Amino acid sequence: MMNRSQTSLSRRTILRMGASIPPLWLAACVAPTATAPVADAPAPISTTVPPTAQVETPAAVAQVEPTATGATQLLLPTPACGDDDDEVTLAQTEGPYYTPNTPERVSFLEPDITGTKMIVAGYVLATDCQPITQALLDFWHCDDAGIYDNAGYKLRGHFFSDEAGHFQLETIMPGLYPGRTRHFHVKVQAPNQPVLTTQLYFPGEADNSGDGIFQPALLMDIQNGADGGKIGLFNFVLQLA
After folding, report:
1. Which residue of 26, 30, 68, 159 has the fewest C-beta atoms within 10 A of its own C-beta?
2. Are 62 and 168 in contact (CB under 8 A)?
3. CATH number of the domain that residue 98 is part of
């Protein structure tokens, strides 16, 4: 059995180590699987097991490895837990364009999706820094032109954290929706726990200062990937009942 120092994770340490992550990119897409409902209220969630990710020791650097689906997996080091890691992730408005019952998938890339490719990755943790297994993550965002697909499921989908609390999404950078800064929408739910609805932001955006709901605490750590792609790191911290 692993002890706390082996299984616990530090949000700020991961962000600080981001500069050591080499340029990485996911080359292959994962085809969508069957749809599954997403609960908006506390309720048991599916026990579907996502592909297993490996977590390196604290001395390791991030790497990519193939998965069973043919995609590649971003592997993040596992630092020790610190005293500054019990801050619950801020909740934010859902916005007008949420769509339930999204497909379960870890890649939003499709033949007609254009824009700067991006990986969003990190961990889902409890306030004691312990990883949350099988946490539901439901992402949605606008396309490169700032348009949401409200008729279908483009750039929408859900998936689950693995046994280390790790998650990873392959998508594109969202465009600029009128009146807002660049952002992702996401719902996160630990099994049988309340749903956290929030948004993730990009540092250095000119529109951050003029966005009425922008919160610096929800900034991702953005790294440059290969071929002009981006990597966004963020850890969600949930208050468990």
Report:
1. 68
2. no
3. 2.60.130.10
Contact criterion met (CB below 8 Å) for 121 and 74? yes
Instruction: Give the count of alpha carbons within 13 A of 126, CB side only.
Output: 15
Taking the C-alpha atoms of residue 74 and residue 24, their distance in angstroms, rounded to an integer, is: 8
What is the span of the domain harbouring residue 65?
Answer: 1-241
Which of 106, 114, 133, 152 has its CA nearest to residue 193? 133
Q: Which residue from 38, 14, 5 is spatially nearest to 136, judged by alpha carbons?
A: 38
Q: CA-to-CA distance for 145 and 113, rounded, in angstroms? A: 11
Q: Pairing between strand 230-233 and 117-126? A: parallel
How far apart (Å, rounded) are the C-alpha atoms in residues 188 and 158? 10
The CA distance from 75 to 60, in Å, is 9
Residue 195 one-letter amino acid: V
Angle (CA) 153-157-159 rounded to 5° is 160
pTM to 2 decimals?
Answer: 0.73
In total, how many domains does the chain have? 1
Position 181, amino acid: T
Residue pLDDT, tens place only, 49-93: 333 333 332 222 344 444 444 455 677 766 456 655 579 999 999
Q: How far apart are CA 175 and CA 182, in angstroms?
A: 6
Neighbouring CB atoms inside 10 A of 80's CB total 14
3-state SS class at 48: coil
Contact 237, 80 (CB under 8 A): no
For residue range 154-206, list pLDDT tens digits in order: 999 999 999 999 999 999 999 999 999 999 999 999 999 999 999 999 999 99
